[in-house]
Amino acid sequence: MTEAASGRPLLDASGVAKRFGAVVALKDASLTVAAGEIVALMGANGAGKSTFVKILTGALRPDAGHIHLDGQDRRFASPAQARRSGIMPVYQEPSLIPDLDVADNLRLVDVPVEPFRHWINELGIADLRLDDPIAHLPLATLRILDLALTLAKEPKVLMLDEMTAALPTDLVERVLTVIRAQADAGRSVIYISHRFAEIARVCDRASVLRDGVTVGDFTIEPGIEEKIVELMLGGVPTRIEASGTRARDSAAAAATPRLQVRGIGAGSKLADVSFDLHKGEVLGVVALEGQGQDELFDVLAGFRRARSGTIEVDGKPASFGHPADAIARGLTLVPGDRKDALLMLRSVRENIALPQLAHPSKWGAIPMRREAARVADAVERLQIDMRAQAEVRRLSGGNQQKVTIGRWVAAGVETLLLFDPTRGIDVRTKHQIYPLLRELAGQGASILFYTSELDEVALACDRAIVIFGGRVVDVIEASQASEQNLMRAAYGLTEVERQPSATEAQP
Ligand SMILES: Nc1ncnc2c1ncn2[C@@H]1O[C@H](COP(=O)(O)OP(=O)(O)OP(=O)(O)O)[C@@H](O)[C@H]1O
Hints:
This protein is an alpha/beta fold. Helices cover 33% and strands 23% of the residues. A six-stranded mixed sheet has the order 6-7-8-3-9-10, sandwiched between helices. Strands 16-17-18-13-19-20 form a six-stranded mixed sheet, sandwiched between helices. It has a four-stranded antiparallel sheet with strand order 2-1-4-5, covered by helices on one side.
């Protein structure tokens, strides 16, 4: 904490309550942040963090409670009013209008170009063009744009809701450096995240919400993590371990791969990627921002055509001109942006049952009962918060993400393409998802798993390919997948020493 952080809090909220119909989102939430301080707001999925931030930033009206800014009792009637007082959020979902380009979006929210450019450079996406259409930009870039827009308006209190959840490691580093510098310059930051490593690095304090009630406030110090997890989850101990054994079946590894990818290139970033994905295997994909991973998943899911290379599914050539072609060959994508996967106005149940609903020939009393049982099983295993189940858009971000995964747990899959699937999911559920992926693999599914959280390779994968500059530069077994090894490879530092060929990328 800087010297500026001592003394009276800049923002002081207490007794905040909010209900949505029958759902009590907040009962008694409180939070203080001083100038120059970074405070983590923590809690399991659905604990009420986003609701609290929306109240603090004028997007929602509280049912009860007080908010003091600079010692004065304030009730913001709108986000614009909160912004004028210097309180500015970056929400979980990108805010820019997809049909416009970057420049038009800047004009729309009245942000001058020069400070925006400054922050874009600081945050590591200097190659962005102002005439890039928003709809063509990857989620990670959109999140950085939202942050740059907000910083350009010089906030007094910056509120970041899962800011780093969709970002690759290099961009996470940039964001953490920038927000620490903001605090050192006397600004305040409220930082919502499920990632302890980041909180330990940049935050001064953590405030913990459980079921809408603030249950603790801690100074960040070594060893505090266990205490926070215990409080967040209400005393349920969470051991963070690799999920099950993964002695790969050598017969399966020798058999025809489920997916054989050779020399795939697409767009300007994906140059030449080759790998085999076997039946029963979880193959991690690790890459820094913009190394071609988005393009690779797009090609495999039929959203974009490859410029070069071949794909074989179960030993037979495949060519995907449309997502339906990939689905027909058993390849299912869980996209990074959940908005692309969910029917937001439909119920949790309908969203999870979607693959079955797509086959009217299977309708009938018994399949319906079976479907209900499958949905109930997915809800139970992923601990989906069903309090607002009638419309998925009313679920918390983490719970929406669980629904996108739950759909495929319920449906059963052959080849699952997961793009950063645990984004915004709390620590307890994450550690239920890893064994679940292992279980799907154990039943014969093949899973390609891009992750921006490097520890997930050791926790859930058999091995990982590392992509740098659009090429596979290393293949790392789970047992060797320390963060250090993965990072070295992801930065291309192993490329000179050892460049694996397509055959080395096979087990
Ligand atoms: N508009 C709404 N209508 C009904 N329920 C809502 C609405 N917005 C939020 N909720 C409910 O309020 C509760 C708290 O949600 P909130 O998004 O604040 O949680 P969170 O702590 O931010 O979770 P996450 O970590 O998953 O983002 C959830 O049960 C959610 O379904």
